[in-house]
């Protein structure tokens, strides 16, 4: 018999409204449980990432980066506020400690806000707004306290979230009024 002309229905296709509703309800409950579990995982992952960000601030405010390996990857890279590019964890750690032994030795920093977006189950994009106190640059120019915006990439290695890459810029308050996005039609 040709499949094109077969008019019979397979036995699994028969329609029993009570059975169908039970199957649909069961599938809907499983989907809901999956969404709730995923949301809970994201909450736990967000908390874990924020703890790693807090570990960075703890190192900054102690002016001691000896524990940096606990929150960055071995291949971590960082582009700092003046465009210096440090290409692995040894360079990132050395440069942070170098500047903290000199120009940041008395400069506090604090987290103002953090936004976390998951790009996949093991990669997160973090935007971190922080505040940094006054410091004296290597050219002896006194830099006023300011806000700083960092873009960070965190990766999950096993059960731990680690910083893979970062770049930070100073937030220029005078430039904020000229942000073209503020003129976008609503």
Give the helices and strands, then pairings.
Blueprint: H1 17-62, E1 72-79, E2 85-86, H2 89-100, E3 109-120, E4 123-132, E5 135-136, E6 142-143, E7 146-157, E8 160-170, H3 173-176
Parallel strand pairs: 1-8
Antiparallel strand pairs: 1-2, 3-4, 4-7, 5-6, 7-8
The profile of the biggest β sheet is: 6 strands, mixed
Average pLDDT, to the nearest integer? 87
User: Care to count the β-strands?
Assistant: 8
Number of helices: 3
CATH architecture: Roll
Polypeptide structure, described:
The protein is an alpha+beta fold and 186 residues long. It has a single domain, classed as Roll (Nuclear Transport Factor 2, Chain: A), CATH 3.10.450.50. 33% of the residues lie in helices and 32% in strands. The protein contains three helices and eight strands; from the N terminus they run H-E-E-H-E-E-E-E-E-E-H. A six-stranded mixed β-sheet has the order 2-1-8-7-4-3. Strands 5-6 form a two-stranded antiparallel ribbon. The longest helix is centred in the N-terminal third of the chain and has 46 residues. The radius of gyration is 26 Å and the shape is globular.
Please name the defining characteristics of this protein:
186 residues; alpha+beta; Nuclear Transport Factor 2, Chain: A; 3 helices; 32% strand; globular
Summarize this structure briefly.
With about 190 residues, the protein is an alpha+beta fold. The relative contact order is 0.12. The longest helix is centred in the first third of the chain and has 46 residues, at about 15-60.
């Amino acid at each position: 018999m040709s499949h094109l002309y077969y008019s019979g229905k397979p036995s699994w296709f028969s329609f029993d409204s009570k059975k169908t509703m039970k199957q649909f309800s069961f599938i809907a409950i499983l989907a809901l449980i999956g969404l709730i579990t995923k949301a809970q995982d994201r909450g736990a992952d967000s908390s874990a990432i924020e703890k790693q960000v807090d570990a960075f601030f703890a190192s900054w405010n102690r002016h001691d980066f000896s524990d940096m390996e606990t929150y960055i990857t071995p291949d971590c890279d960082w582009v700092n506020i003046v465009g210096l590019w440090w290409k692995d964890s040894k360079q990132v750690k050395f440069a942070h400690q170098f500047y903290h032994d000199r120009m940041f030795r008395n400069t506090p920093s604090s987290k103002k806000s953090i936004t976390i977006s998951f790009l996949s189950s093991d990669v997160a994009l973090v935007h971190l707004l922080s505040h940094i106190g006054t410091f004296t640059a290597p050219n002896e120019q006194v830099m006023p306290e300011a806000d700083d915006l960092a873009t960070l990439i965190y990766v999950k290695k096993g059960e731990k979230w680690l910083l893979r890459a970062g770049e930070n810029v100073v937030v220029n308050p005078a430039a904020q009024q000229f942000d073209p996005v503020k003129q976008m039609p609503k």
